[in-house]
């Protein structure tokens, strides 16, 4: 199968926090992530095209030292799916990262390159 996405995607659990303008926070982990977006389980439906402030905690290793890179960006919900296989997180959402610093996007790409199969 030919990959059509502009950014490679890997199935990895990375902590993710979404905040809206009403100071409502949603905490989850990604099911998969790329430099352009993420797909994750969530406990409530999110409105399509809604913009959220996002914090992503990406594990990195530099010079054999492990640490966490905190990435702040905005994202827009581009897909929401009702799932019947998980009672705790009955929805799956896809979000497109926007307003992300180039250096942060590069950190995600590096993480993906290290962990891709």
Can you describe what's shown?
This protein is mainly β. It has a single domain (9-115), classed as predicted glycosyltransferase like domains (Thrombin, subunit H, Beta Barrel). It is built from one helix and eight strands, in the order ββββββββα. It has one helix at residues 102-115, and strands at residues 9-10, 15-19, 25-29, 32-34, 37-42, 51-62, 65-82, 91-98. It has an eight-stranded antiparallel beta sheet. Strand 7 and strand 8 (91-98) form a beta hairpin. The model has no long low-confidence stretch (mean pLDDT 90).
What is the element layout, followed by pairings?
Layout (H helix, E strand, L loop, with lengths): L8 E2 L4 E5 L5 E5 L2 E3 L2 E6 L8 E12 L2 E18 L8 E8 L3 H14 L2
Antiparallel strand pairs: 1-4, 2-3, 2-6, 4-5, 5-8, 6-7, 7-8
Short description:
It is built from one helix and eight strands.
Structural descriptors:
single chain, 117 residues, mainly beta, Thrombin, subunit H, 8-stranded antiparallel beta sheet
The SSE string, one letter per element, is EEEEEEEEH
- For the terminal residues, how far apart are their CA atoms? 15 Å
* Coarse shape: globular
CATH class: Mainly Beta
Tally of distinct domains? 1
The radius of gyration computed from the alpha-carbon positions, rounded to a whole number of angstroms, is: 14 Å
Sheet of most strands = 8 strands, antiparallel
What do we call the CATH topology? Answer: Thrombin, subunit H
């Amino acid at each position: 199968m030919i990959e059509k996405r502009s950014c490679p995607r890997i199935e990895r659990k990375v902590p993710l926090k979404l905040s809206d303008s009403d100071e409502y926070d949603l905490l989850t982990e990604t099911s998969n992530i790329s430099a352009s977006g993420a797909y994750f389980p969530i406990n409530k439906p999110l409105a399509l095209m809604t913009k959220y402030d996002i914090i992503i905690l990406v594990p990195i290793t530099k010079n054999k030292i492990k640490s966490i890179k905190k990435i702040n960006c905005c994202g827009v919900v581009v897909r929401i799916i009702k799932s019947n296989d998980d009672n705790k997180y009955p929805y799956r959402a896809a979000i497109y990262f926007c307003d992300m610093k180039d250096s942060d996007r590069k950190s995600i790409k590096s993480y993906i390159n290290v962990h891709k199969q």
